[in-house]
Structure formats: C-alpha cells, structure tokens
Amino acid sequence: MTERQAPPAPGRGATPGKRKDGLAALAFLSPSIVTFVIFVLAPTLGVLYLSFYDWNLLSDGTFVGLDNFERLFTDERLLRVYGSTVYMALAILAINVVLGLLLAVLLETRMPRWLRGVFRLSFLFPFVVSAAAVALIWRFLLNKDLGLVNYLLGGLGIDRIDWLGSSVWAPISIIIVNSWKTIGFSILVYIAGLQAIPDQLKEAAIVDGANAWTRFWRITFPMLSPTIFFLVVINTINSFQIFAEPRVLTQGGPGDASRTIVEYLYDRAFGDFDLGYASAIGITFMLVLIVLTAVQFRFSRRWTFYE
Amino acid sequence: MNTSLRKLATAGAVAALAVSSITACSNDEAAGGGDKSLEIVYWNYGPAAETGNKATADAFMAANAGTTVTLTPVTGENWGTYYANVATLIASGKRPDLMVISGEGAQFVHANNLVRPINEYLDKDADAKAITGDIAQGLIDGFTVKGDVVTLTYGWNNMVVYYNTDVFKKAGVEPPKADWTWADFEATAKKLTTDTNKDGKPDTYGFTWASNEIFPGIMPWVANANGNLTSDDVCSATADTPQVTKAVSFLRKLITDGVSPAPMPMSDVFTRFQNGQVAMFGAGRWPIGTFLPAGFKAFDIQQYPKGDTYKTVFGGAGYPILKSSKNPDLAWEYQKFTVSEEIEKQYVGTPEKPGDSIPSRRSLAQTISKVGVPPANSDLYYDSIDKQPTLVPYPAPAKYSAFESTVLRHLQLIFAGEASVSDGLKNMQGELSSIVTC
C-alpha cells in the first residue's frame, strides 16, 4: 500500500513549471500594473493626501485635518453643481442606452450595404473627433441671434431659443452635444452585441409564430442584457465626468446651470488655487461613482442574463 | 508640509486634477547648466506667441554669445488659466528665470512672493532712464505693486472700439468721432442694426463684446462710468456701486433693445465682425493679427465713447524676473532686450505681418501708421495712454482667475435676463468680498 502524500501548500511546493507560468503571467501583466500604479493609484493617493491640507500650489501647505471635507457640507454652490451634473448625466445616460439601442436595431435591419456603412460612419465620426473642437463648432451653431440652428428653426416659425444663455436651455444644449458625440460608441457596442445573438434563435421564434416585438423582448433584449449593463456602467461614469462641452459651450453658465462637478473641481484647484478643497471634492466624487457602480452591479443580477 | 511628500503628492494630484494640459517642452539640463543660461515661461496662446518668443530668444542668444535661452510654452484659455498652469509647473519643481505676465498677473506674482522687483536695476543701470523715458508712465504704473516695479512692459493693448467700415457705408452712417458719448454710441449702434432678410429679427447687430474676458468686455464701460470693480488698493471689491450698475445696465439695455446679440466669446466675435454680422466690438490691437492675414481690411478703430468721464483701459505684458532665477543679472539683460528697438519692431510689424500688440516704446509705436499697418487710425493706440487718463490700478487682485470667473458667471445671469442688474451685482459683490482681499 502506498502512502498518500499531502498536497503541497499553495505557493510553497509549486513546481518549477508553475513558477515559470506565474512569472510569465506577471511579466504579461506588468505593463498594466505599472500603468495602473502610475496613472491611477499614485494620483488617487496623492489627491487623498492633499485633501487633508490647505495648499495653494505655491506656498507651504498646512495640515487641516477634515476641514476640507466639512466645507463640502456648507458649500451651497457644490450642491447646485451636483444637481446640474446629475440632471445632465442621467439624460445623457438615458439617450445613450435607449436611443443608442433603437438606432443600433434600426441599423441592423435590412438595407443596402453602402447605406449601412454611411449611417455607421455618420454616428461614429463625432465620437472620434476632439470634444473641444466639436464644442467650438456647436457654440457657433447654437448662438441665439446669429447661429445657424435658430436660423433654420426660424424658417419653421419657431422663435429664437437662447441655447447657451438660458438656465433651461444651456444644460439641454450640453446634453444634446454630448449625446451626439458619444452615442456612436454605444451604437457600435450594441451592434457587436446584436451580431453575437445566434440567428437560429430568431429563426426558431419566427417558426413558432413570434412577432417582431415578442422576438425583441423574449430573445434580443435578454441576450443583449450584458451589453446593456456594460453600456449603463460605462456611460454613467463618462456622463458624470463631462468637462469639455460645458467649458467651451457655456462656461458652466449661466450661473451654475450647466456646470459639472469636474469643471467645479477644476476651478477650485486651478482658479482658486485651493488644491486641498478640490481634492476633497475629487475624493468624494470618486466615492459617489464607486457607490453608483456598485449599486448597478448589485441590481444587474435581477435583469442581466448570461449564457 | 513635508517637502518631498508634498512633491510626491503634487505629482500624483496634478496628474489627476489637471484637466488642462501643460505643454512643457523645456530642457532642464540647459536651465541649470551654467551661468549664462535662462529658462523662460510664456503663454502659448497661438502661433504668434511661439514665433515671437522664439525670435526674441534667438536674437538675444545671437547678441550675447555663449548664452542659452530655453523657452517653455504653457497653454491656457486665458491669462487666468495660464497663471494656474504656471503655478502647477512651479509646484512640480520647475524654477524658471523669467515668465511672461500681463498686468492682471502683477498682483499675483507679487502676492505669491514669486517676483524679484527691478527697482534696483532701474536705479543702477545706465540704460534704464532712456528706456523708461520712452515708455508711457501708465505702463510703468500698471506694473507697480506697493512701490515695487514688477517688470518693464514690452507690449500692451488698450481697449478701443473696432468698426466695420463696409457696414457703416452700407447703412449710411458716419464713422464715429473721438468725442462721441454713450448717447451717440447707442444711436449709432441702433442705426447699424438691420434686418436685411425681413424676417422680423436683426441679422446685423450694432455692437457686441467678449463674454469670456472682462477687459475687452465690461471694463471700458465701467471705467467710463467712473467706476471700477475693486478699490484703488485692490484690497476690496466694489462691484455693486452705482457706477458699475450704470455701466452694466447700459450694456444689458443694448441686448434687450435688440442692438446687441447674446454675448459670445471673443473668437466668435472676430468671425461675426469680419462677415458683417456685427458692426462694432471692443478689443485691443490683437484682432489685427487675425484680420490682416485673412485679408480683411474693412475696419478702423475709435476710442470708447465718453460716459461720465473717459479713461483708457489697457493691459500690458512683460517678463518679470522670478526669485527662483539663478541668474538674475542675465535675466535683467533679457528683460531689457525685450524692450529694445530690435525686438519692439516686431510688435509694429508690416501690413502683411502685423504685430498683435502695441510696442511699449513710444518712438516705435509712432511708426505703426508710417509703415502703413492698418487700421488708418493707428496713432490712437499710443495717444490713448499718453494723452488720456487711464484706469490704474488694474482691477486685478492676486486671485485673478477666481475673480474673473466670478464676475463673468454673474454677468452671464444678468445679460441672459435671469437676474436683475442690482441683484446680480449684489450677489457678485458678496462672492468677491472673500476673493478680493489683501
């Protein structure tokens, strides 16, 4: 009878081959790890460190403990800016996820190949163009008195809209311009998701007599749910971080009507030279986004289906 | 704060917080490499800044054998953000010898103890008297903070009214005269506002101003109403005075009367002016750097209309010596060189390649009209500071960037009709009271 040998303790009795595999894995991962440490972890820790100081970039900083975090609760403008950010971000998210899906489904319907190419290119093109350059052009188009958009609307008998100067319309302009720019990405991801759905499933449903609406809800939507979830998470993070559009189009105004948290944070850091407070805003904003993403992951289990 | 930890934190934090990019093409080796090297930081607002600074640096190196000048261009959407980016650069360990500043930056560099005043050089240097004698006193006063002369001014801009001569001709309106008043101005602007396509809305507007800067925006009107946005010592805000209220109310009325369009940033104003959609706007000399190369010459200038008084609103730029300079004497020689005849000629320019600011030396500025650089009324540029009262000191506190953005934010609400003039200025004053301090 041979004695059963105890398995080697993890990591201790690893064979030379396994150790080699581990080193190879580390080597392959090292560019990502180094990049993460330099561009994500170190800056985050730096911002956390600064959030406990009163520092204006040019003088010696003073340790102020939690003072910068206490200020967050008395800053009336911050609350207003959070409000405008949430409003614009949710609208951009909804447009990207819902309208993006609709457009992707339409683009996957039967049409000449060249026409499909034209549509796909048209939607994707704004996504690859610089946000600042795009915003500059839109600023020209949306000028209340001399812009092309109001000129065309005037032809339809619609009175001039103060796209960039009114508290009501300025955030809507940001939503329109940002959605126009980013929806191409959502469409692209949706199309990839739609093309991954096996044709046999749809064909079987047709044989069973399911109409287009039933096929969408019973087959396409469930099969696409991981893609939708991915886009919800990505678009939430991106839409909460918009900067170029409000900066160029409206300078966050009028007042704070179209100001975003990132813009507000930037102004506190590099306008007021209040690095400590800006860092506190940054840290809390990061926590808000982490919580939002965690909530999305938690609830996604109820409606996301994986094969 | 522990210095090394602070630097580490800065490196990380700046990378995370800085949305704007700093285009730093500096050469550290050259900066610290010897007794005859200089590192200079400048605002890279466009190709003209780059070529102008390079030409000056090259000429200095040619005239001073063995010297090395390293230029560090820094981006920024306006002077305020440029200062913020320079501060970031300094915080990350850079130690320039000189940096370009505007008048708005004089208080900033002085309050942050960054600058080495040049009073001593002005007293001792044999060339200094001849130089300062050829520079308008206002340009020296504009860069003097608490008795310290921060820098010599190499180039400057006064705020004048640009008018499109073709639009005036088409509307049958006489060009404005130097002694025009606010009432004359308003009447002229109304005549120039026309609805050519008869859709019930104007398509040519009489006047507009920059929404993204206060100097070419509201300041000439505030100054001519005999007001200012800060006290004379630049230690407290004066944004809700009757004078400021009068100026802002006048501008708002131009919008509500349909004589001015909704305010827009300066770059958009240039385009609207060239294509005749706006008949008049206010700026310094810099628009000709855009207009003439584009072949647009149908314009002239006039000083702002007189209100309760007349004051020339101006801004200048210079290369102050920073305290971090390892070579302050050489830096002074460079500063002097920037106001030499050889260099100042580039600000005069030619009709094909005009300068984009006014030379600080009177003798050079007076040659602009002689060499034929448009506009026809070019002599007004220097005359306005030599012969007219000026707005000194600048309403430019040490926290200029925060000051300007606060003023502009409240003006947005006022000009959009979402806040009354009195409420808007009252709120502005409330916020400025913690920003404008000493």
Automatic annotation (TrEMBL), chain A:
<dbReference type="InterPro" id="IPR000515">
    <property type="entry name" value="MetI-like"/>
</dbReference>
<feature type="transmembrane region" description="Helical">
    <location>
        <begin position="275"/>
        <end position="295"/>
    </location>
</feature>
<keyword id="KW-0813">Transport</keyword>
<dbReference type="Pfam" id="PF00528">
    <property type="entry name" value="BPD_transp_1"/>
</dbReference>
<keyword id="KW-0812">Transmembrane</keyword>
<feature type="transmembrane region" description="Helical">
    <location>
        <begin position="86"/>
        <end position="107"/>
    </location>
</feature>
<keyword id="KW-0472">Membrane</keyword>
<protein>
    <submittedName>
        <fullName>Sugar ABC transporter permease</fullName>
    </submittedName>
</protein>
<keyword id="KW-1003">Cell membrane</keyword>
<feature type="domain" description="ABC transmembrane type-1">
    <location>
        <begin position="82"/>
        <end position="296"/>
    </location>
</feature>
<dbReference type="InterPro" id="IPR035906">
    <property type="entry name" value="MetI-like_sf"/>
</dbReference>
<comment type="similarity">
    <text>Belongs to the binding-protein-dependent transport system permease family.</text>
</comment>
<dbReference type="InterPro" id="IPR051393">
    <property type="entry name" value="ABC_transporter_permease"/>
</dbReference>
<feature type="transmembrane region" description="Helical">
    <location>
        <begin position="22"/>
        <end position="50"/>
    </location>
</feature>
<feature type="transmembrane region" description="Helical">
    <location>
        <begin position="119"/>
        <end position="141"/>
    </location>
</feature>
<keyword id="KW-1133">Transmembrane helix</keyword>
<feature type="transmembrane region" description="Helical">
    <location>
        <begin position="223"/>
        <end position="244"/>
    </location>
</feature>
<feature type="transmembrane region" description="Helical">
    <location>
        <begin position="168"/>
        <end position="192"/>
    </location>
</feature>
Automatic annotation (TrEMBL), chain B:
<comment type="similarity">
    <text>Belongs to the bacterial solute-binding protein 1 family.</text>
</comment>
<dbReference type="Pfam" id="PF01547">
    <property type="entry name" value="SBP_bac_1"/>
</dbReference>
<feature type="signal peptide">
    <location>
        <begin position="1"/>
        <end position="26"/>
    </location>
</feature>
<keyword id="KW-0732">Signal</keyword>
<keyword id="KW-0813">Transport</keyword>
<protein>
    <submittedName>
        <fullName>Sugar ABC transporter substrate-binding protein</fullName>
    </submittedName>
</protein>
<dbReference type="InterPro" id="IPR050490">
    <property type="entry name" value="Bact_solute-bd_prot1"/>
</dbReference>
<dbReference type="InterPro" id="IPR006059">
    <property type="entry name" value="SBP"/>
</dbReference>
